[in-house]
UniProtKB/TrEMBL annotation:
Residues 21-215 form the Spore germination protein N-terminal domain. Pfam families: Spore_GerAC, Spore_GerAC_N. It is found in: Membrane. PROSITE patterns: PROKAR_LIPOPROTEIN. The keyword Isomerase does not apply. This is Ger(X)C family spore germination protein. Residues 225-390 form the Spore germination GerAC-like C-terminal domain. It is a lipid-anchor. Transmembrane segments: none annotated. Keywords: Germination, Lipoprotein, Membrane, Palmitate, Signal. It comes from Clostridium simiarum. It comes from the Bacteria.
Amino acid sequence: MKKIRIILIILICMSFTGCWDKVEIDRRVFVSTIGIDVGKDIEREQELKNFKEDQLFSQRDLDKLKITYSFPDISDFAPNKAVIKGDNMFTVDTYSMEGALGEISSRSSRNVYMEHARLIMLSNDILTYPYTMTEIFDYLERQPKINRKAYVVMTEGKPEDFIKFKPQIDSHIQSYISGLMENSNRNGYVLPVTLNELLMLLTKNGNAIIPSIKIDKEKNELILTGTSIIKNYEFKGKLDPIETLNLEILRGKLKSGIKVVYDEGHPIDFEIDGVNRKIKAHKDGEGSNLVIDIDINLEGTIKSAYFDKKDFDKEKLKELEDSFDKSIEYECSKVVEYLQKEAKVDAIGINDHIEKFNPNIWKKVKDNWEESFSGAQINIKVNTFIRRVGITK
């Protein structure tokens, strides 16, 4: 009886295996990168706002978007030749994201498969059209076949040019940029954002942050230029790589990063490998303004000093720690000032903290958080702890 049960279980399991959609792997186009840019008719998007129901309108008359799908070229792939030459791509001028997919499907002899997409590129131009961006993000949220773990970046230029770019290390642009994002545990100048994280931020209040990239044509290099700020589905401002590292410190999410101060004219490099952030929120004495205290504890290692320097004693270490405290406090305060006065976007996550741990205060400020954040008194206190100084004689 026991053997019969085992045989039945095996047969049941076998019935649920196999290629359920009956599409062979060599009949698929595995999209790895999606590039989203403005179309030639993007300025006509306002026409739809004034469109009346009794008017005849063809959706294909309006090419608001230019969508590029990149996929590995597996035309010569074989068991005895397991090499992928590079990438191919489809580019479509269309009225919507779904319209682009439909047109690509009609032009391809293979099934378009997007569940393996690793990278989504948004041009800096498309991010200046919030009306259209709401449609794009709505599509990305509703589409179950797009990989939610795909990284999202803003391109300073046309995504199509980035897809055509050939990195020196990787033969595929999505592998190269994904590698840069995944190196964030060793490089604090990178703030990786997945599609799932981006949609969660936008769903909450329409604000988010994503990394930005550009191509240096003179050096023929692709470089990270910092972090772009999205407010109400529109590009609002940008932080350079150093400001991005300081933002990660303020968010308490920095995994690794280098800070430097000068001692007797020599640079002292301090590698941060631990961050502990605490936030306290309260009203001032009169109860009108919001006061935020951000206490940050950093610890790490001295990576470089100068060769003829004697071993650091306690007094010298304390002097260096004080120097790093002042330097990092100043840099972080400049980032906070920019976020409060110019961008007017809480990219630090103060609102999340108050909502969770100070519900009474949150009830008073949630309906007008932008104004409350911009007018808040934010005090930053940094405590640096040099735990190691490397190997010395």
